[in-house]
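Researcher: I'm preparing a figure for a lab meeting and need a structural model of a single chain. I don't have an experimental structure, so a prediction will have to do for now. The sequence is pasted below. Please return the structure as tokens so I can convert it later.
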Amino acid sequence: MDKIQLAEFIKSADPALEIIQGKQFPELSLDPSVLHSVAKMLREKEELCFDFLFCITGVDYGRELGVIYHLRSTVHNHTIVLKVKTADRENPSFDTVSDIWKTADFHEREVYDLLGVKFNNHPDLRRLFLDNSWGFPLRKDYVDDINIVTK
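Model: Understood. Here is the structure written out token by token.
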């Protein structure tokens, strides 16, 4: 199925979902409360079979923090993008999808390490690259007075 048919099929499976035709792939903007259930439906529904999570990206939008998931169906040869955001910069959190796609384990740890986004029910959420003396260096409001590099 092409990306228009894919968007229509997903919309028919859950009419509450907002689907945008992105430049490359259909995009689902999700409320964080439905992230896990929608992800599970995308993985398990035979007509969709999104069996490969190939990228998770953490984003600091300024006022909001977000996570972008790129999913691929190796069976049906289609791709989709999921996006979630939160305005809670003090305690940003989303449900983990590591129980749906094992590859999310390290991707979510990387987002946690660099942006401070926590993933509820993650089996091993700890810093991946940096120790606890660091803040979250990919946040726009991050300041490092010790390791700062200037021209």
